[in-house]
Amino acid sequence: MKYIIREAQIHEKEAVNTAHVLSIREICSKDYSPEQIAGWSGVIYSDEVWINSLTNHFYRVVEVDGAIEGFCHANYHGENLGEIRGLYFTPKIKGHGIGKEIVELAKKYLIDLGAKKIVIGATKTAKPFYEKMGFIATGEEKLYHTRGTAFEYYPMEMIVTKL
Ligand SMILES: CC(C)(COP(=O)(O)OP(=O)(O)OC[C@H]1O[C@@H](n2cnc3c(N)ncnc32)[C@H](O)[C@@H]1OP(=O)(O)O)[C@@H](O)C(=O)NCCC(=O)NCCS
């Protein structure tokens, strides 16, 4: 499959959201209830959050045949701490090694800024993927509350060093 990983553009908020929603509804739905999926996939970034993320963070999209099929959002918090905040692919691009590639790019971005630890709140769906990438679950399943719905997630982390 021919794909491009590139920086997200300001005008692509809706296209990124469409891929995000598809990923939640078609991939994460095997691990969460219909109520959870409905609440979760109804969340849309405000323009303020979107513009701040694109301006100040790592925000890459995966483009296939001119359409956005996934994204990865990461940022450096300071004090040697980085976070992967969002990584969502549509079924079209899942399972082709692109997740691994984009996580490596995010890791490099965070390490270059000074990260020594990278954390993730992993979905039940993506936990095995992150384990494969070398992340370790640091505690029990936790609940994230948004818009009246609670979602199970796993705090995970990886200690990283600059090569
Ligand atoms: C998480 C996600 C982005 C992974 O991307 P992907 O491109 O499908 O993953 P890759 O093809 O790069 O997989 C990399 C490796 O992880 C393994 N892997 C991926 N998903 C796995 C799973 N569920 N269980 C076990 N191994 C898995 C692959 O087999 C591959 O192994 P290899 O390097 O030995 O070949 C994608 O599955 C997704 O969008 N999931 C739904 C959204 C979600 O839950 N996001 C997480 C938010 S925290």
Written account of the structure:
The termini are far apart. The chain contains five helices and eight strands, in the order E-H-H-H-E-E-E-H-E-H-E-E-E. The chain has one domain: Aminopeptidase (3-Layer(aba) Sandwich). 33% of the residues lie in helices and 35% in strands. Strands 1, 2, 3, 4, 5, 6, 7 and 8 form an eight-stranded mixed β-sheet that branches. Coenzyme A (COA) binds at residues 23, 27-28, 87-89, 94-100, 120, 122-123, 125-126, 128-129, 132.
Question: What characteristics describe this protein?
Answer:
163 residues; alpha+beta; Aminopeptidase; eight-stranded mixed beta sheet
Quick overview of this protein structure:
The chain is α+β, with helices and mostly antiparallel strands and 163 residues long.
Q: Average the pLDDT over all residues and give the rounded result.
A: 95
Radius of gyration equals 15 Å
What is the number of E strands?
8
**Run of helices and strands:** EHHHEEEHEHEEE
Major beta sheet, specifics?
8 strands, mixed
Shape: globular
**Structure classification:** alpha+beta
User: What is the level 1 CATH name?
Assistant: Alpha Beta
The stretches of 5 or more residues where confidence is low (pLDDT under 50) are none
Ligand set = coenzyme A
Number of domains: 1
Task: Estimate the strand proportion.
Answer: 25-35%
**Relevant CATH superfamily:** Gcn5-related N-acetyltransferase (GNAT)
CATH topology: Aminopeptidase
Span from first to last CA?
Answer: 30 Å
